[in-house]
């Protein structure tokens, strides 16, 4: 890079006469310099995050020291070049929120050629009508957002039809904060969902639990109750299924709170803006449409659930009258 810059700067003096061409050379040199600092900054930011992960890991109580936390670099709305940049810096696990976007990136020829060992985590709201598309993405490693039985079954059946050598890793997503805007099953129904997957979905490998948690909690204000809920749920689930807690991952912690999450036992952290910078709006028109659809389906699911609760309540009322 430096050699190229020197050559380009030199060309202004030696080869090309005339003001315009010199300006062009200077501009190209500036561009190259800018590219090289941006490139090293993703690598630097990754290194900073990995160092902090290490420090937080060392602070964990002895019982939680059994695993090093996995860093998932969340590349939603970020360019393929940035993904490749991070890959070149050694990062292998990447998180995406939109099926459309992970499909475009995952099928890209240059990426397939250059990033053979990439591992995609799907961390967005997943609609059943997009399951087939998502499961067709090469190097899909894990679906972190399975939050209901119908979705689990759809993934199971589709993965089964694809005749893959191993089941697909999934996490049960829990809405620990109870906020309506967040996906996830309720803490109360987590065990039921986990049991359903274990008993009915041979093509899913239930690898753990995931939560987003409330954005309002300030990590400086003390222990995040959402993380505490997820830790407790893992205890409960493992006890009920008679498996050791080490068998189930906990995916919790984002840019603002991953250090605390790790100290509390997180084994997967999903970090976006700290590595890649502030998020952009969804890039392609298709992704924007998907974002809108996701929001709409979420609304519909909510009203279906409300209907179910209402009819259940009225049944119960009728019963008590009889
Ligand atoms: C966007 C996103 C992240 C990353 O968030 P940052 O605050 O940018 O680190 C993590 N998890 C999920 C589910 C996300 O949607």
UniProtKB/TrEMBL annotation:
InterPro entries recorded for this chain? Ala_racemase_N, PLP-binding_barrel, PyrdxlP_homeostasis
Keywords on record? Pyridoxal phosphate
**The Alanine racemase N-terminal domain, residue ranges:** 71-279
The record's GO molecular-function terms, alphabetically, read:
pyridoxal phosphate binding
Mark the residues carrying the PTM N6-(pyridoxal phosphate)lysine.
Answer: 76
Protein family:
Belongs to the pyridoxal phosphate-binding protein YggS/PROSC family.
Q: What is this protein called?
A: Pyridoxal phosphate homeostasis protein
């Amino acid at each position: 890079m430096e050699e190229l810059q020197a050559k380009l700067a030199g060309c202004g003096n030696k080869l090309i006469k005339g003001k315009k061409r010199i300006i062009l050379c200077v501009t190209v040199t500036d561009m190259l310099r800018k590219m090289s600092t941006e490139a090293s900054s993703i690598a630097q930011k990754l290194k900073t995050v990995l160092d902090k992960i290490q420090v937080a890991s060392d602070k964990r109580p002895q019982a939680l020291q059994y695993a090093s936390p996995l860093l998932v670099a969340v590349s939603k709305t970020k360019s393929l070049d940035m993904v490749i940049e991070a890959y070149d810096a050694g990062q292998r696990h990447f998180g995406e929120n939109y099926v459309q976007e992970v499909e475009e990136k995952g099928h890209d020829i240059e990426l397939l050629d250059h990033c053979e060992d990439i591992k995609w985590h799907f961390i967005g709201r997943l609609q059943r009508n997009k399951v087939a598309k998502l499961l067709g993405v090469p190097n899909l490693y894990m679906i972190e957002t399975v939050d209901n039985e119908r979705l689990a079954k759809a993934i199971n059946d589709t993965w089964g039809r694809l005749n893959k050598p191993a089941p697909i890793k999934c996490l049960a997503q829990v809405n620990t904060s109870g906020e309506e805007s967040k996906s996830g099953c309720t803490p109360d129904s987590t065990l039921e969902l986990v049991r359903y997957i274990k008993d009915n979905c041979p093509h899913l490998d239930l690898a753990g639990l995931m939560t987003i948690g409330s954005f309002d909690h300030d990590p400086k204000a003390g222990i995040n109750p959402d993380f505490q809920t997820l830790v407790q749920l893992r205890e409960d689930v493992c006890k009920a299924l008679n498996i050791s807690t080490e068998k189930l991952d906990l995916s919790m912690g984002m840019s603002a709170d991953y250090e605390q999450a790790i100290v509390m036992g997180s084994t997967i952290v999903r970090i976006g803006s700290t590595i890649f910078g502030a998020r952009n709006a969804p890039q392609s028109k298709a992704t924007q449409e998907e974002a809108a659809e996701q929001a709409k389906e979420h609304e519909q699911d909510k009203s279906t659930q409300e209907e179910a609760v209402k009819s259940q309540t009225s049944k119960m009322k009728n019963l008590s009258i009889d």
